[in-house]
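Subject: Predicted fold for J domain-containing protein, 185 residues

User T.R. writes:
Posting the sequence so we have a shared reference for the thread.
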Amino acid sequence: PEKRDETRSEKPPHDEERINRLHKEREQIEMSEIEWVRGGGVLRDAQGRRDKARTERIRAELKLQEEEKIKMGRWKEYDDRWKALVASDKALAFADIPWPLRTAPSSRGTDAFTLSAISEFLFESLSVRSNTVTKKSRIRSSILRWHPDKSSSVVGRVVADDVDAVREGIHAVFHCLKRLQEDER
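User M.O. replies:
I've generated the structure tokens; pasting them so everyone works from the same file.
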């Protein structure tokens, strides 16, 4: 017969439940504190004094989360516009093209398509803490998207007045992407 080791103690199940309950309570307290600070409140310490350091840490985290949300939102909007453009068959104007810039170009010229403007847009969402995409893969996927041969189906749908401007824009973007790729090597 097998002998049981009586000296080894296992945690009773109620201890695990208690630990889980305490974790949930702590999470609820943290969420309440975050909401309090988000609403403009100031946290207090155990003695009732203002806890400026903890309040500022939460404010900084909230600000960072908002900035990350904006960055990811810009990238998602850009990506969604590309998906919609590829899926549709309607005629396109220069303004309909989802250019890889933080703000749409104000004219049909290629002055806005600078290396710094394009890299700022392409790489800003890579700084988000939850990001798993590398610079190299972002550049590669962008080159595939903006390659003049691949984008001919888009150019074929552009209205006659904007064809030259769109072609110039595509070449300017592609040229910047190739330079970024060379810089990454």
